[in-house]
Amino acid sequence: MKFTSEEIKLAMTCATPVELIEKAAAAGHELTPEAARVAYETLHGTGDVSDDMLENLSAGASCSEPMRCSQCGGTEIDPMSKLRGSLLCAHCGAIVS
Asked: Burial code of 7-36, b = ≥16 C-beta within 10 A, e = fewer?
């Protein structure tokens, strides 16, 4: 699922994860309470960064070789998919590994 910059900006205005769930539903997206909490904490800079997240950031894919979608070959990752724990192609929605 790809979110527009307008939807991300709208999510930034939410005061609580519950409000984020409501605004997502109004925009036609379904968020679980856990996904809303993670998204809220990520967007608002609250919460701790897990060891796994730090490892992914520090030892992630090489800058010289971008990750490619096995379905369409795209290299753009849906930024909101990271909040749900999977990297999804921004073009076709397939899981990128």
From this structure: beebbeebeebeebbebbeeeeeebeeebb
